[in-house]
Amino acid sequence: MSDTSITIYHNPQCGTSRNVLAMIRNSGAEPTVIEYLKTPLKAEQLQVLVQQLGMPVRDLLRQKGTPYEELGLGAAHWTDAQLIDQIEAHPILMNRPVVVTAKGAKLCRPSEAVLDLLPNELQGGFTKEDGEVVEPGKASNV
Description:
Layout: E1 7-10, H1 15-26, E2 32-35, H2 43-53, H3 57-60, H4 68-71, H5 80-89, E3 98-101, E4 104-107, E5 126-127, E6 133-134
């Protein structure tokens, strides 16, 4: 990955994901946008992504608005491989947005978490969809 390469796993229906994409663009970068609901990740790709994130697979699962409860994914018996298979089968289970840059990978919730990954600071102030202002140079504590 080059120093300026940025990939966002994006859901355009998600306000946080839209804010993160807009912040990346505000910093002067044009990311590779992967709409993972239209182009679902294969299990192998998900395994690599989880390794890049350095987080348990369970932390990548989204519960709200997904078949999480219906599938019983909160049960302890699920292995990481089985959870990854469930995300592959039901891409909506992947929490978003996930951003990967040369600085690392992160689930960017809250959206300001992306600031730690960007090669450049925001170009002036940025206002999120909910009206909250994000100041240039503000790093996340996430």
